Amino acid sequence: MGHTYQAVQWNPQKKLYDRLIVGGVILYLVSFIAVSAAVHPEATLETLLIRGLGTSALVLLHIILSIGPLARRDPRWLPLLYNRRHLGVTMATLAFLHGGFSTLQFHAFGDVNPIVSLFTSNTRVDSVAQFPFQPLGAMALVILVIMAATSHDFWLRNLSAPTWKALHMLVYVAYALILLHVALGSLQTHSGMATPAALTLGAAWLGTLHVLAARTEASRDHRDNDEGALQEERWVDACGVDEIPEGRAKVVVAAGDRVAIFRSKGHLSALSSVCQHQNGPLGEGRVVDGLVVCPWHGFQYRPKCGTSPEPFDERVPTFRLRIQDGRVLLDPRPLPLGTETDPVSITPAGSVPA
């Protein structure tokens, strides 16, 4: 960010990830079509392509929904979280091609409008074995396309972060619709138990990951609250000075808020750990060129005052710190937005007078 800011999704690292994504998708499609053609020689190339596009989108969706909880449990997954938006757009594109080719093959050569035919050609809603599964996929596709179309920061800024986040949480509605779409389609084509078993395993994987991630965060928050007993009026014993790596932060919970205590060039500064861009984990970021950089989308903040460099206007609360006997003490009361605080100096001995 700043006057020389370039959209972070197109930096060299992002371009490398994009090439890996495209290469992986192409490899998957070629492999899927080759194997499927050998197993089902009666299937046409169009049918195999439709199935390949659909399964590749479903695999990517499982990967996308896995990244968040994995990153919450282990920060080594953060590079994938940093690039999740491009995975989402790729997944939506594959789903759109799957839906478009399916509609063309099954509904475009009659006397009825293909979209109308998709929703009206099967009305057996009273039968599980004949339930119209294609409209379920179409509804999921609408959600995925809307999410992909609004993934740019322009929409985030104009819709506001809470609205944007609520909109993109619809991915779980789309996931449920896709599970029903694929399961019912498999049932009606009598393709055996392999597909239902794979769907069950995928859903169980995601459910387990989210439960484990929630337990990890709850345990961490509870531990930090226990360790943050008040000392000398309002000050909280946050951590030891040596617990904070250079250029990184120690995230603590104080008065119910997550606070990131950053260390850079012999000084400590404390900011809210919640990025104002998309509520990203600011405390998992780094200090680069004197600015705290969010690991999700590269938004930057000045450690002294929690403000973004011009022309951006995002701000996060700051907190007062002091060091005593090698321990970092934190005032858990957030200062007004934009309040400048002097970074606390670390002496070679690891402490300064209170």
Task: State the gist of this model.
This protein is of the alpha+beta class and 354 residues long. The chain has ten helices and twelve strands.
Report what the structure shows.
This protein is of the alpha+beta class and about 350 residues long. The protein folds into two domains: about 10-220, no CATH class; about 230-345, Rieske Iron-sulfur Protein (3-layer Sandwich). The chain is about 50% helix and about 15% strand. Strands 3, 4, 5, 9 and 12 form a five-stranded antiparallel beta sheet that branches. The two termini are about 35 Å apart. About 30% of the residues are buried. Residues about 1-10, about 225-235 and about 350-354 have low confidence and may be disordered.
List keywords for this structure.
12 strands, disordered C terminus, single chain, 14% strand, Rieske Iron-sulfur Protein, disordered N terminus, four-stranded antiparallel β-sheet, five-stranded antiparallel β-sheet, 10 helices, 354 residues, alpha+beta
